[in-house]
């Protein structure tokens, strides 16, 4: 569905391929192409303006990195801004603290809401191994209830209904009661769809919501409606706070405007996308994968990331900034260690650090050995863990997994945590001193 957008953006890269670096002058052309491509993808003008401005600022701010051409750099900048536009990280469904997970599903008629209810039910049942109940509250259309019952029977998920004479909030409450009594793990409440947003529908949605205190309130919107979909999410969110959206019909020939706009316009993330009529056709929404699909340049992104990472290793300014922002993570820890190694033996470097200048060669050798062990442990971590060491501080099962994965004991991982924390503290003090005027205080 992003074909046109991808082609439009390709023109932008072409314009700076032969240049030495990105400049205020030579990015004018590419910015025009990006703007045009996004408008053609049905992204609203204010949003396009905002996006192009951010890309421009980032593009001019990037440092020239060895081995990376300006067009590749621009691809990376646009990729990062696209990911952030679409909400950054993938957003999962909320888990309940107590009792069953309750998902309230809303949407205008015809967008694929009922189908989405069946898809979600199947997803929770099959992938999350949950016992699922669906609840039909669309009392205005008997056909809607029948449709849900039919979907339920296809995937062997029971459907609770009370016909068309009951009150929607009451049906929802009774459905939840049944779920609690019969130990269901998840309940999907299908609400009534209307042709247009009207105040009756919103009131009803609020009442149903109050009756079941859902863990998620999701709105199904049709990707084919482009930026309008984002507006609908915003309108629903304004009157009955949502936790996210399901973007349906992503397999169709829509131009991409909905996927790009929902988060930015409504503030709510897309949690799932529907990619076909079959009940299996539901996928979690990944902003990063979607962005690289739009750009179609996975290997360029990897190249730029690697080159930037390599450049960062020797960039003290970057390290200072990380430290001041309290972002010194395991990647930095490892980089610092590697840098020390490349500067000679660790001992020589450590001797230059105050407090370490009494260090003996024996101690140095031991430190080098430990560091090799730490490196193995760090490579057993997930990307997230490396970027956010706090994840380990709070989670024994993660530490256990890392210990096992790297052939170490839990206490070794704890030791690594201790050393990491110590190094972070040391570097941070160092960074503060350097910021507040030279290294004079270092020996004190
Ligand atoms: P509702 O009125 O919102 O409940 O919409 P339905 O669930 O009845 O779906 C309306 C139509 O859209 C049906 O023909 C569905 O098969 C179709 N549909 C729903 N989701 C998708 C999707 O992700 N892709 C495609 N291609 N069709 C879909």
From TrEMBL:
Its EC number is 3.6.5.4
Please give an example of a GO cellular component term from this record: signal recognition particle, endoplasmic reticulum targeting
Q: Which UniProt keywords apply?
A: GTP-binding, Hydrolase, Nucleotide-binding, Ribonucleoprotein, RNA-binding, Signal recognition particle
**One Pfam family here:** SRP54_N
What are the recorded GO MF terms, alphabetically?
Answer: 7S RNA binding; GTP binding; GTPase activity
Instruction: Write down the Gene3D superfamilies for this protein, in alphabetical order.
Output: P-loop containing nucleotide triphosphate hydrolases, Signal recognition particle SRP54, nucleotide-binding domain, Signal recognition particle, SRP54 subunit, M-domain
Query: Which catalytic reaction applies to this protein?
Result: GTP + H2O = GDP + phosphate + H(+)
Which residue intervals define the domain SRP54-type proteins GTP-binding in the entry?
269-282
| InterPro entries named among the record's database cross-references | AAA+_ATPase, P-loop_NTPase, Signal_recog_part_SRP54_M_sf, Signal_recog_particl_SRP54_hlx, Signal_recog_particle_SRP54_M, SRP, SRP54, SRP54_GTPase_dom
Q: Which GO terms describe its biological process?
A: SRP-dependent cotranslational protein targeting to membrane
Q: Which domain of life is it from?
A: Eukaryota
What the entry lists under NCBIfam families is as follows: ffh (TIGR00959)
Similarity-based family: Belongs to the GTP-binding SRP family. SRP54 subfamily.
Would you tell me the protein name for this molecule?
signal-recognition-particle GTPase
């Amino acid at each position: 569905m992003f074909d046109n957008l991808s082609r439009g953006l390709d023109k932008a890269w072409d314009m700076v391929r032969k240049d030495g670096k990105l400049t205020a002058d030579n990015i004018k052309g590419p910015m025009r192409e990006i703007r045009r491509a996004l408008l053609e993808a049905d992204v609203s003008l204010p949003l396009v303006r905002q996006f192009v401005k951010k890309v421009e600022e980032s593009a001019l701010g990037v440092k020239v990195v060895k081995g990376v051409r300006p067009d590749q750099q621009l691809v990376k900048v646009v990729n990062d801004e696209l990911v952030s536009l679409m909400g950054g990280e993938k957003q999962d469904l909320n888990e309940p603290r107590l009792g069953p997970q309750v998902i309230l599903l809303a949407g205008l008629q015809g967008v694929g809401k009922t189908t989405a209810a069946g898809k979600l039910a199947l997803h929770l049942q099959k992938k999350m191994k949950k016992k699922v109940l669906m609840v039909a509250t669309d009392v205005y259309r008997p056909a809607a209830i029948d449709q849900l019952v039919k979907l339920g029977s296809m995937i062997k998920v029971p459907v609770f209904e009370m016909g068309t004479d009951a009150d929607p909030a009451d049906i929802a409450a009774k459905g939840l009661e049944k779920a609690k009594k019969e130990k269901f793990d998840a309940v999907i409440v299908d609400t009534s769809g209307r042709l247009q947003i009207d105040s009756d529908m919103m009131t009803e949605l609020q009442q149903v919501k109050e009756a079941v205190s859902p863990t998620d309130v999701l709105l199904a919107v049709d990707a084919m409606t482009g930026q309008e979909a984002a507006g609908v999410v915003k309108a629903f969110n304004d009157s009955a706070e949502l936790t996210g959206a399901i973007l349906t019909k992503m397999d169709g020939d829509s131009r991409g405007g909905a996927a790009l706009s929902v988060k930015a316009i409504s503030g709510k993330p897309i949690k799932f996308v529907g990619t076909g009529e079959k009940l299996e056709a539901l996928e979690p929404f990944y902003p990063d994968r979607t962005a690289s699909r739009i750009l179609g340049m996975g290997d360029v992104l990897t190249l730029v990331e690697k080159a930037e990472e390599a450049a960062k290793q020797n960039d003290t300014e970057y390290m200072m900034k990380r430290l001041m922002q309290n972002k010194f993570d395991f990647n930095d820890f490892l980089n610092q260690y590697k840098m020390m190694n490349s500067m000679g033996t660790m001992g020589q470097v450590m001797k230059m650090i105050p407090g370490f200048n009494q260090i003996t060669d024996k101690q140095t050798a031991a430190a080098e050995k430990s560091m090799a062990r730490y490196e193995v442990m760090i490579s057993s971590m997930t990307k997230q863990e490396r970027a956010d060491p706090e994840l380990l501080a709070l989670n024994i099962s993660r530490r256990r997994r890392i210990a096992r994965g790297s052939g170490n004991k839990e206490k070794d991982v704890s030791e690594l945590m201790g050393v990491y924390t110590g190094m972070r503290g040391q570097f941070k003090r160092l960074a503060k001193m350097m910021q507040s005027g030279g290294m004079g205080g270092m020996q004190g």
